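Researcher: Next sequence.
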Amino acid sequence: MGSRAIVAVCRDEDATRDAFGVEGESGIVLTRTGRRFSMIWNWKPR
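Model: Next structure:
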């Protein structure tokens, strides 16, 4: 059995806020039940 995830990636934090009402994120990985996927998610573009 493997892990299943949903990935939501937006162009920038403004797009994330407009689409999902979330502040300070530009993407997220969630399990199929809606919990945050347990992985390090601190990548920032240069």
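Model: Helices lie at 13-20. Residues 1-38 form one domain.
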